[in-house]
């Protein structure tokens, strides 16, 4: 029951801290239920286990809790995530656990009664209420309270008896030791090595031997704060600089200047930075309007149906790509991919198709920004999903999209200097196109010149000339010599797949 708290692919480090949390939240092997003596009192064999993650805002407490929940799923049969920064929302969400557990109908209006029902289940977490009250029928659960800035709110929701584990995140250092919790830690900043790894993941730009020193100096100046690393990575991508040039920019501007503290309204202190101003200033008017709406909503539970999806603009993606807006294309497709993956279990085939299309668009867009390894990853997933499409006869569905996908994976192989694999992919693409019922020679406008270039790189100049002359003749017979229409035709065709 983690809601929208998905595991982050770009999470780095913290392995030692995750193991420390294990020491306090996971029962030792010697205390596993299966090893308990039959006549031993189950109530005394187990006790409530708890741990607190404390630290400044932006240090990564919530992300660490999310990572822990997802990587330790095998140890807990039930995981509950509750945002505790607002007492009213906490009360409502805690009571709603009764509905999620099947203990109440969703039309229940008595929050207090629902809370008591949940507390009762936590103390005696029966897997099936119809089965005997014995240890084999008990569920091992994990309860996570996120953003517990006011420790007093825990009193009404803290389990009175054992049976499970509780993890909290808080900016209050006293959360580590209080009436409820006796163990915890103050989350330290990321190490410089972890900062470098995180920045490379967020920017999708891998460091080479010439830029390694520049990245190390950038990481050293970010003080290991994940929020700062995230903002700087966004700035890096928007400026489209190398690590060396970005270091020069930071040295000219001064990292401290970018994160200087200024007095806010009514004398209150708040962090304002040039990074924030630049980020907001670069947003389009519709995006700023969307942020103005979102800032009024509960950040942990924003109904999707309140927002209008850009997919209603049928030509929106083509518009961005045609005008060279690849950087703008990528976040659009990444968001589409995330939404589709979350909805796959409910929507089914439609979500799977959206996932496939998102991988294809990302693979193509990332080539234009020279992120070739990431591009190959998305293109390979696109091709694999096409090859896995169900068909009554059991044969692979060979259509225009499959032919185009083989062309694109060939491009990825070529960029990785895997020439023979690229040649095989382009030949397969040509074969698929030529086998279509509506085949036209002009469909070879992508794979055949690419095949010719691969033969040229291989040193097989006769085959290279044969392929390139053949596609030139096809273009000339369709649009005339030295035409300007062929690229437009192929671009439209690829976005109509």
From TrEMBL:
List residues of the DUF7779 domain.
278-312
Sorted alphabetically, which SUPFAM superfamilies does this protein's record hold? P-loop containing nucleoside triphosphate hydrolases (SSF52540), TPR-like (SSF48452)
* A Pfam family the protein falls into: DUF7779
Going by the entry's taxonomy, the superkingdom of the source organism is recorded as: Eukaryota
For this protein, the record's InterPro entries field holds: DUF7779 (IPR056681), P-loop_NTPase (IPR027417), TPR-like_helical_dom_sf (IPR011990), TPR_rpt (IPR019734)
Q: Care to name a GO molecular-function term for this sequence?
A: ADP binding
Q: What is this protein called?
A: DUF7779 domain-containing protein
